[in-house]
Specification:
Structural class: alpha/beta
Bound molecules: zinc ion
Strand content: 15-25%
Distance between the termini: 50 Å
Helix content: 10-25%
CATH superfamily: Ribonuclease Z/Hydroxyacylglutathione hydrolase-like
Number of domains: 1
CATH class: Alpha Beta
Strand order of the largest sheet: 1-15-2-3-4-5-6-7
CATH topology: Metallo-beta-lactamase, Chain A
Number of helices: 8
Largest sheet: 8 strands, mixed
CATH architecture: 4-Layer Sandwich
């Protein structure tokens, strides 16, 4: 099978599965005037962010370990997703949430448990009208499409570009967006989401000058697809483009097609001498920034 045929067959195999139809605190920054920016890694890309006095939930994948078949044409076909349990009960994760952000609707960012557990009237932000319709079809009633100038409870939200891989695989991977959060009392936070390093990420860094950047770094891949999200070299490029920023790496070791482990990444950033700038939290770990 040549490369094109392979990609087409992967596209057919995956069908709706991927395209969303199922659809110990550490103080790292001293001083500043933050109201208490707190970032908690939950599992995969799911995070809870306390920002501007609000509690925000990012890309909730809330199902129990082993609920879904592995993503095909990739590593670990003997393991079901998610690979690990949540570090706390799902009910606790959604308790008191003020808004939810979906960077896109792949199964590892928006799953059946999220659909069932998140109260239907919760404020939800999505990247475009297609995702809005999709989320509304699960009876969510308060869904808004992000723009480059959206606001929520005094927080400025800016949608950014993101690119979920390189070349042919993008036809399968589809669209995704990143998000920048700004608030007069908080550090600027950029969630790059499911993207590789490319000019869109550079553009967001240049435009917003974020002090904190969250990247998705498991280097997930299908066989022959190349990176779907950041690998270690992509993360190094982000660091070089934003040397003063703290980078927090999420989306690690939770779905079967990851190719970069936390240990390997930690070894890499140590070797590059950037371990104080690039943080690799375990699930459940949180930072007050
Ligand atoms: Zn993902």
């Amino acid at each position: 099978m040549n490369r094109k045929d392979f990609l087409l067959s992967t596209l057919r195999t995956l069908g709706g599965m991927l395209i969303g139809k199922f659809a110990d605190a550490k103080t790292l920054f001293k001083g500043g005037k933050s109201k208490g920016l707190r970032i908690r890694q939950i599992r995969n890309a799911t995070m809870i962010i306390e920002y501007g006095g609000r509690k925000l939930l990012i890309d909730p994948m809330l199902s129990k370990k082993g609920t879904y078949l592995p993503f095909p044409n990739s590593l670990r076909q003997d393991q079901k997703n998610p690979l690990v349990e949540l570090p706390m009960p799902a009910e606790e994760i959604i308790d008191g949430i003020d808004a939810v952000f979906f960077s896109h609707l792949h199964l590892d960012h928006y799953d059946d448990a999220a659909k069932e557990l998140i109260p239907k009237g919760t404020k939800i932000f999505v990247q475009d009208e297609t995702d809005k319709k999709n989320v509304e079809s699960a009876e969510f009633t308060n869904v808004e499409v992000l723009t480059e100038n959206t606001s929520f409870a005094g927080i400025q939200l800016c949608k950014t570009k993101a690119q979920h891989g390189r070349g042919e695989i993008l036809k399968l991977a589809g669209h995704v967006c990143g998000i920048v959060f700004k608030h007069p009392d908080e550090k600027t936070l950029y969630i790059a989401a499911d993207t590789v390093w490319y000019e869109g990420v550079q553009e967001a860094i240049n435009k917003h000058d974020p002090e904190i950047i969250i990247v998705n770094g498991g280097d997930n891949q299908f066989f022959k697809s190349g990176s779907l999200i950041m690998g270690k070299d992509d993360i190094y490029e982000v660091h070089k483009a934003a040397a003063k920023s703290k980078i927090i790496v999420s989306h690690m070791e939770a779905v079967n097609h990851y190719t970069l482990s936390r240990d390997e990444l930690k070894g890499f950033i140590k070797e590059k001498g950037i371990a104080s700038s690039v943080l690799v939290p375990h699930d459940g770990e949180s930072y007050t920034l």
